[in-house]
């Protein structure tokens, strides 16, 4: 199992190969890359993709190499671009208050470089970090953290895993992506961080996953609806903290008003235990609020302008780009196909975009692409089961081409007809895993819904869907008597 860097003799590529133990430089694939090997592309061209995994696949590399195609792709996936660039004698320029450049590898930001330069010229592609930029910690401040998240999002939106992302801050404080280079100039600090990341990636492959260390968790958002069908603030009933508490998004700029609540059960080693933890958490919360109204509703966007998500937490799992691809294919896509299409389109692409991942302070990460599958316990159990299969059967699963332009566009438009053949292929891949039989009772109903073009019910009270309100009312009557 070897790791290759495909290049055309560029000095940057030669420096990278020299710096990374175990990285082999090649100028052609034939005769070198075997089915179990991994390939990093530092060049586009006619050489085919090959091996078990390719970083910066040829199609993605070509898209990122052409500014117009890159901009179209980023816009399609909801990434903000400069709106007010103006023409000048020497090209195009964008007025900014600050400018960042972020090297990304394996869908992780490696470093953060910043300058307060007011104007950036866009006539040439950005491939390096200039001397006027200073390196700051990734978590230096809130803006730096958001910039790093946007850099990873833009990289993933283009189907890349290695890039240098240029991001500007407009006079109104908005973050805009100026450029994404799939072949950064490798020198100085940039060479150092990429070499370290690639070395760790090569070493990671040799480390076996310890199933005993893997934990699944979740937080599932929901909202409250009153008798007249209007939104009721969650902060009227729930605290910020706790196993059922308010999401930190505020209403109308008032930090005391929070429209969303979320269920935060204890993590578990198995999907079955996690699903039971969700049920128990709902039961305990419903005991405090057993009345019919306000109703607890979930899905993608129970109320306009208020999207809700179902986030799956994973720890003890080595993070890499292929894992995110598999989560998009085997978790994000099937669940999207049973979401309510109207609310699904309202939620995306601002929220729930492909590859929506956040790393957590405890060392794990959360996958945030699905809507809130709290709507139904069978669907919730299926979501946890699919994540479990992705984690434990990564090497067996096929990475279906969800990141091709047609498929990505269909995902964001909720185009079921285009995506149905891929959904069938995904189902076939799942059926070939040894874990399928264990979870068949929850996987089959979801894929049957996809075949019948059925969607989940966003009007159901989740307390009724999980059978906890009746139990809570019974407990209240028993206590009263």
UniProtKB/TrEMBL annotation:
Native species: Ferroacidibacillus organovorans
Superkingdom of this protein's organism: Bacteria
Name recorded for this polypeptide: Phage phiEco32-like COOH-NH2 ligase-type 2
């Amino acid at each position: 199992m070897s790791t290759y860097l495909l290049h055309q003799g560029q000095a940057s590529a030669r420096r990278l190969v020299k710096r990374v133990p175990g990285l082999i430089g090649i100028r052609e694939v034939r005769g070198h890359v075997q089915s179990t090997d991994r390939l990093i592309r530092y060049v586009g061209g006619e050489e085919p993709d090959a091996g078990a995994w390719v970083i910066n696949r040829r199609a993605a590399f070509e898209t990122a190499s052409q500014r117009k195609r890159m901009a179209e792709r980023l816009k399609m996936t909801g990434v903000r671009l400069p709106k007010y660039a103006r023409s000048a004698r020497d090209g195009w320029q964008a007025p900014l208050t600050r400018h960042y450049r972020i090297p990304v590898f394996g869908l992780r930001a490696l470093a953060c470089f910043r300058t307060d330069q007011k104007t950036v010229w866009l006539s040439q592609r950005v491939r390096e970090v200039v001397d006027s930029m200073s390196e700051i910690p990734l978590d230096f401040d809130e803006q730096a953290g958001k910039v790093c998240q946007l850099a990873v999002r833009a990289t993933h939106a283009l189907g890349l895993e290695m890039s240098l992302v240029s991001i500007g801050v407009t006079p109104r404080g908005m973050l805009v992506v100026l450029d994404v280079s799939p072949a950064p100039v490798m020198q100085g600090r940039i060479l150092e961080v990429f070499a370290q990341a690639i070395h760790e990636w090569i070493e990671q492959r040799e480390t076996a996953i310890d199933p005993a260390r893997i934990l699944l968790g979740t937080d599932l958002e929901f909202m409250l609806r009153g008798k007249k069908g209007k939104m009721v603030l969650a902060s009227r009933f729930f605290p910020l903290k706790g196993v059922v508490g308010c999401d930190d998004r505020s209403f109308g700029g008032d930090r005391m008003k929070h429209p969303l609540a979320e269920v935060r059960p204890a993590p578990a080693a198995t999907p079955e235990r996690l699903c039971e933890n969700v049920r128990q958490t709902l039961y305990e919360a419903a005991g405090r609020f057993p009345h019919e109204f306000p109703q607890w509703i979930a899905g993608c966007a129970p109320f306009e302008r208020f999207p809700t998500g179902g986030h799956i937490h994973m720890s003890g799992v080595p993070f890499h780009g292929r894992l995110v691809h598999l989560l998009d294919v085997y978790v994000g896509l099937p669940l999207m196909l049973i979401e309510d299409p109207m609310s699904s389109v309202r939620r995306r692409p601002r929220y729930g975009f492909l590859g929506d991942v956040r790393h957590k302070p405890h060392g794990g990460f959360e996958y945030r692409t699905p809507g809130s599958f709290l709507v139904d316990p069978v669907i919730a159990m299926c979501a946890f089961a699919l994540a479990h299969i992705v984690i434990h059967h990564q090497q067996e699963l096929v990475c279906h081409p969800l990141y091709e332009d047609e498929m990505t566009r269909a995902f964001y438009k909720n185009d079921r007809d285009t995506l149905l053949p891929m959904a069938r292929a995904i189902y076939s891949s799942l059926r070939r895993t040894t874990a399928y039989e264990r979870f068949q009772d929850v996987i089959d109903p979801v894929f049957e819904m996809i075949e019948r073009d059925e969607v989940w019910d966003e009007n159901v009270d989740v307390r009724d869907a999980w059978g906890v309100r009746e139990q809570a009312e019974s407990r209240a009557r028993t206590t009263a008597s």
